[in-house]
Amino acid sequence: MKLSEFCRDRLPAYGIGLAAWLLTLIFLYAFRVSGEAMVIVSVVLLLGAVSAESWAFLRKKQYYDKLLHCLEGLDQKYLLPEIAEDPGFLDGHLLYGVLQETERSMCEHIAGYRRESREFREFIELWVHEVKLPVASLALMCHNDGDARYDEQLRRIDADIEKVLYYARSGEDARDYLFRSVSLKKALAQVAVQNRAQLQELHITLQTQALDTEVITDGKWLGFILGQLMANSMQYGASQITVTAQVLPDRTLLSFRDNGIGIAASDLPYLFEKSFTGQNGRTHARSTGMGLYLVKKLCDKLGHGVAVQSVQGAFTEVTLTFGRNDLHMVTKM
Amino acid sequence: MKRILILEDDAALRSELSVLLQNAGYAVQAVTDYTDASAQLLEASCDLILLDIGLPGVNGQALLQALRRERDTPVIMLTSRSGELDEVLSMSCGADDYITKPYNPTILLLRISAVLKRSARSTAAQTYRDALVSTVRGTLTRGDREEVLTKNEMLIFQLLLDRQGEIVTRDALMTVLWDNDEFVNDNALSVNISRLRGKLSALGLPDAIETRKKQGYVLR
Q1: Which residues lie below 8 Å from residue B110, measured CB to CB, with a gap of 6+?
Q2: Which has fewest Cβ within 10 Å: A145, A224, B18, B174?
Q3: pTM of the predicted model as reported, rounded to 2 decimal places
Q4: Which of B70, B99, B120 marks a domain boundary?
Q5: Which residues of A touch B179 (CB under 8 A)?
Q6: d(CA B79, CA A220)
Q7: Surface-to-core class of residue B5, CB atoms within 10 Å of its CB (0-12 exposed, 13-18 middle, 19+ buried)
Q8: Are residues A228 and A326 in the same domain?
Q9: Is the ipTM of this complex over 0.90?
């Protein structure tokens, strides 16, 4: 709070003070009071007014400067009412009350949405759990009848159900992951077996290099992420997929590379945006722009890095970065 | 004949599972009334139990713990909840394996036979006709002749041997190989089988593997 701002705000009050002072002078003059007395009265009034104003200014400056400073330092501005103090003066006190009241109301509002979104997510998880039963039954029926005709469609249904599940899990309030040491080889093998029929139908060869290593992650989530990458490779004309792990001192890199149609350089910066389909989306049916968006969101939640390199017409390479957690090594030191 | 007990509350899934297992040569017993599932589970005598995690009114993991206090019959957990936590909990409660719905039938059968094999602790060497099969050393021995099989050839031979006399589809062979991190293609499978045939001929068993057109292979 600047002194000039404060004075400008108080200008009407100063005007009234000035008028009262002039009026006083007129009265004093009319009562034939001596000039010295009039000067003394004026000085006393001025001193009184100046000290009263300074006191008021300093009091407010102290409080509001602190409040503004807090606001600036806050990451989440809406948390201000939590740390604001109740000042000793009236208008500040009123403002404090208003802040508290609006915060309470906003918290209730948000709690309502949060509950709604949690309930929705729980319902989705339950629904996914339910809908997998008939899918599982159908898969077994097809197998028992020796009819492989429906397998591919069932696989697609299952993949789409998984997508819904992980979309729900990628939300703000979802925390249902579990970090464990996961073998990259096992994680990839699971995804490969699930997609085997389609990979072979498309004559895609799958190669792995140096996957005999473990990373700290949630195995199921990693499986989903790899599944999305594999689905992309299958959709965008790959004939070879190479999965390579590279162990560095502080992290492990997993690169998933295919020799498909690649991605235009102009599309690269937007790949992880929701519903972004880019040039490839216009030439290929069934692009939803959800796959890489979900990959990015899940990686962010798990704390893994993800980056895409590509040259159109040559290759696409997605690199996942897993941090190395050495906390468990403490005892060995 | 190995007996398998199924605890799965979805009727359609249960009956299809029964058919699958019966076709694969197991004796199947399925629990249909879940009011006292735990009592039936504890009383049943079987070689392996397929246990659904989400049975009505009772938690599959609690059921498993109760069973483990009594017996160590091998248990494979079935679930449609694809969370890591369920898997960890199940394994720590003493499950032998864990499979998420919808399962690949071939893989389900593989897991079942693997768990049964492990529980039988059959360290006794397997034989095919008069040839000795050593999966540990990866060799086939007949008389004084020994052939070393590659990992792929051994996986193929093992599956054919497990289902000796039955038709094994190329698809099933492929699934086994892929499940063991060997991502071979159609051509590579044919090459592996012809090499395996070559090695069997060298042991004096030239007609061991028979090709059934458009169906698969049979180990005679």
Answers
A1: B175, B176, B179
A2: A145
A3: 0.80
A4: B120
A5: 189, 193
A6: 13
A7: buried
A8: yes
A9: no
Give the residue carrying structure tokens 């997998």. A132
Judge whether B90 is closer than 8 Å to chain A, CB to CB: no
Q: Tell me, yes or no, whether A182 and A274 share the same domain.
A: yes
Whether B101 sits inside 8 A of A135 (CB atoms) is yes
User: What does the pLDDT look like over B132-173, one tens digit per residue?
Assistant: 888 888 888 988 889 999 999 999 998 898 888 888 888 889
In-domain check, residue A142? no
Determine, for residues A200 and B174 on separate chains, whether the beta-carbon distance falls below 8 Å: yes
With CA atoms as reference, report the closest residue to B24 among B133, B178, B159. Answer: B159
SS3 A263: coil
Which regions of A196-324 does DSSP assign to beta strands (E)? 205-209, 214-217, 240-247, 251-258, 305-311, 315-323
Beta strands in A121-227 (DSSP E): 180-183, 205-209, 214-217
Helices (DSSP H) in B5-80: which residue ranges?
Answer: 11-23, 37-43, 60-70
Cross-chain Cβ contact A135/B102 below 8 Å: yes
Residues of A in contact with B87 (CB under 8 A): 219-220
Query: Tokens for A67?
Result: 């409040």
Mean pLDDT for the stretch of residues A242-258: 93
- The answer to whether the CB of A142 falls within 8 A of the CB of A148 is yes
The sign of the torsion formed by the CA atoms of A67, A68, A74, A76 equals: positive
Number of domains in chain A: 2
Pick the last residue of a domain from A64, A81, A105.
A105
CA distance A109 to A212: 50
A196 with B174: Cβ contact below 8 A: yes
Q: How many Cβ pairs within 8 Å bridge chains A and B? A: 97
pLDDT digits (tens, 9 = 90+) for B48-94: 999 888 788 788 888 888 888 888 889 999 887 667 888 888 888 88
Domain housing A325: 177-332
B110 pLDDT band, cuts 50/70/90, is confident
Residue B77's H or E segment, with its range, is strand B75-79
Domain endpoint, select from A105, A122, A138: A105
Query: Could B81 and A207 be called an inter-chain contact, meaning their C-beta atoms sit closer than 8 Å?
Result: no
